[in-house]
Specification:
This protein is α/β, with parallel strands linked by helices. The protein is built from 21 helices and 8 strands. The chain binds adenosine-5'-diphosphate and magnesium ion.
Length: about 475
């Protein structure tokens, strides 16, 4: 086989994967456009990529698939190698997929397309927090893909990733990342109008526009923007009319190649009481998730947050916090804030012992934050010898209604789930049913002295299983 044969194989594999739908156009643009064939030699094929980050992502996502395809085509086992080519030509032409930026976000602002006026002294955006920018966003195990896509959008809104949807649990950085996109565009492209709004405000404004007969103003306001950022779209569940309105806004902006960005607490497919056509619009572009950060990332975030604060906190204390607060970044930050406040108050350096003492409550409450409805249902159903399905089902016999009420009561006691959320996990019951059930258990505790210890024991075993 000659070198050019290898090149042909490579081109053919990529073509096939796209044709079969194993590689979407979006994925291709993101990961393959900046990958170039370098050489083929014996059992090796070498590809050029712009950065280590890029290489790791491609390996994780595609290496197995690519190598097995290569095997199919050539009939022999081949290994793919990657070479980092910093001055990758295409990558330079298209800063959007130049992943070197991901590794040094500092270089980001300098790379806005020429046709836009630089606007370093543009006034801060009224709806965006100034500190929510890419420089303050630590890239870690949990968010690297989301962050690189966000940066790509920041330098080329309305380009390849439209709409862009970030999903994940509370406090994992959705709003920060979304607003970073907004700030980046706001400051680097004078001619772009960025609008940020929470879904909740969008709903309220929409309802208000109906009442005050100002619907056309409302429509105009949201259809004349270049970048529309809507935060927490799960709040649109059950809001059929607003969904309908957003659907039309979406289409108008999308057709005009304007950038749409959404955040959501779950993948769009799991939205309930949501029109399918809007859901499928969300899914049309790039959907990325944010995961809870690992220890290294938690530690890096704490260090980053400390940069802006003059109080010094010893590394051991940061480590203690990073080890113990595993839930999300908001909790992580509030533990740090607590320590900083305490250090300022007593006017001396915090020791690990003091930190431990001061944060004891926080550490255990973040433990309970890990408790899921599902776990409580399992523990309670085992204890009462019924099944979790019974708890969620329709049966109203005493054997299941009592355990069901106990489970709801416990969830209400030791987690932050709302009665609406709890109801949904119990076969779609109404929140008033949940409230009523909890009340029943409380009442019974007054008359039955054995109930409280039973509930206490159940709570202990739920926590032990966390
Ligand atoms: P969400 O919208 O997902 O609930 P936020 O964006 O409000 O979460 O993030 C919660 C807090 O954590 C914010 O103060 C944010 O600045 C911080 N945060 C989240 N992710 C990161 C990160 N990767 N680097 C630095 N700070 C972060
Ligand atoms: Mg948020």
């Amino acid at each position: 086989m000659s070198g050019s044969d290898y090149n042909l194989f490579w081109t053919e594999i990529v073509r096939q994967l796209m044709e079969e739908g194993n590689l979407s156009k979006q994925e291709h643009d993101m990961w393959f456009r900046n990958m170039e064939f370098i050489k083929g030699d014996g059992d090796f094929l070498t590809l050029g990529v712009p950065s280590n980050f890029y290489r790791d992502q491609v390996k994780q996502r595609y290496l197995n698939l690519l190598e097995s395809r290569l095997h199919d085509l050539t009939g022999s086992s081949m290994t793919i190698n990657f070479e980092i080519r910093k001055n990758n030509r295409q990558a330079q032409e298209k800063p959007i997929t130049n992943q070197a930026q991901v590794e040094s976000p500092e270089s980001r602002l300098s790379s806005s397309p020429e046709e836009h006026t630089q606007a370093a002294d543009r006034k801060p955006h009224r709806q965006l927090r100034q500190d929510y920018d890419f420089d303050g966003f630590v890239i870690g195990n949990n968010n690297s893909f989301a962050a690189s896509a966000a940066q790509a959008i920041g330098s080329n809104p309305g380009g390849a990733y439209n709409p862009f949807l970030i999903y994940g649990g509370v406090g994992l950085g959705k709003t920060h990342l979304m607003q970073s996109i907004g700030n980046s565009i706001h400051y680097s492209m004078m001619d772009k109008k960025v609008v940020y709004i929470t879904a909740e405000t969008f709903i309220n404004e929409f309802i208000h526009s109906i009442k005050s007969e100002t619907q056309s103003q409302f429509k105009n306001k949201y259809r004349k923007v270049d970048v529309l950022l809507i935060d927490d779209i799960h709040d649109l569940q059950n809001k059929k009319e607003t969904q309908e309105e957003l659907f039309h806004t979406f289409n108008a902006l999308y057709d005009a190649k304007k950038q749409l960005v959404f955040t959501c607490d779950r993948p769009p497919s799991e939205l309930r009481n949501f029109t399918d056509r809007l859901k499928s619009r969300f899914e049309r572009g790039l959907n990325v998730d944010l995961q809870p950060p690992n220890f290294e990332t938690r530690y890096a975030i704490l260090r980053k947050k400390l940069e802006t604060i003059s109080t010094s906190i010893p590394d051991e204390v940061l480590e203690l916090i990073a080890r113990n607060v595993t839930t999300n970044i908001r909790d992580l930050e509030s533990s740090l804030t607590k320590m900083v406040a305490y250090a300022d108050l007593v006017g001396k350096k915090i020791t690990v012992e003091v930190a431990q003492q001061q944060l004891k409550g926080t550490f255990t409450s973040t433990l309970t934050a890990n408790i899921t409805i599902d776990r409580v249902q399992r523990v309670v159903s085992e204890y009462f010898n019924v099944t979790p399905a019974d708890l969620k089902g329709k049966k109203r016999t005493k054997q299941v209604t009592f355990p069901r009420q106990v489970a709801m009561f416990i969830i209400r006691e030791i987690t932050d789930y709302s009665t609406t959320e709890i109801g949904l996990e119990f076969g779609g019951r109404d929140h008033t049913t949940v409230m009523h059930s909890c009340q029943r258990i409380e009442d019974r505790m007054k008359g039955d002295p054995t109930l409280e210890p039973t509930v206490g024991e159940l709570i202990r075993s739920v926590k032990e299983r966390s």
